[in-house]
Specification:
164 residues; alpha+beta; 4 strands; 36% helix; ATP-binding; UBQ-conjugating_enzyme/RWD
Length: 164
């Protein structure tokens, strides 16, 4: 994580000292996504729920990381659930792609690990889908909320009301 941030700072310093454009400019160019991710990862790590841990397999690739959620309440208490997150090049106009790696029965997670969470949808019927103002912190807190007692109560209320 610090490696990419250092790279961004170093590049900004080099911009002022360059006198002519070189062929290596294209290799040094950093995407908007990566610039956003440096800020968002720092904010995420400062505001991570106590039940979540983030792991970056490659500190130079902030767009690929793993999240571990270990719920401390509800049906899933004591479990350990792994999620893989990939942030596409078009971020923040499109949501990150998240997949659950742990096999689990959950009303919002399919057998193949796809997650039904409105903020992970590019377009949502209820209007709470992805927006450019959302961040990785929102994604992590949203995934964490799938395992809280409050979520369980909402599912039970829904089942009582609509299940026949």
């Amino acid at each position: 994580m610090l490696t990419l941030a250092s790279k961004l700072k170093r590049e900004d310093g080099l911009k002022g000292s360059r006198t002519s454009a070189t062929a290596s400019d294209s290799t040094r160019r950093v995407s908007v996504r990566d610039r956003l991710l440096v800020k968002e990862v720092a904010e995420l790590e400062a505001n991570l729920p106590c039940t979540c841990k983030v792991h970056f397999p490659d500190p130079n690739k902030l767009h690929c990381f793993q999240l571990t959620v270990t719920p401390d309440e509800g049906y899933y208490q004591g479990g350990k659930f792994q999620f893989e997150t990939e942030v596409p090049d078009a971020y923040n106009m499109v949501p990150p792609k998240v997949k659950c790696l742990t096999r689990i029965w959950h009303p919002n997670i399919t057998e193949t690990g796809e997650i039904c969470l409105s903020l992970l949808r590019e377009h949502s019927i209820d209007g709470t889908g992805w927006a450019p103002t959302r961040t990785l912190k929102d994604v992590v807190w949203g995934l964490n909320s799938l395992f809280t007692e409050d979520f369980r109560n909402k599912v039970e209320d829904y089942m009582k009301r609509y299940a026949r």
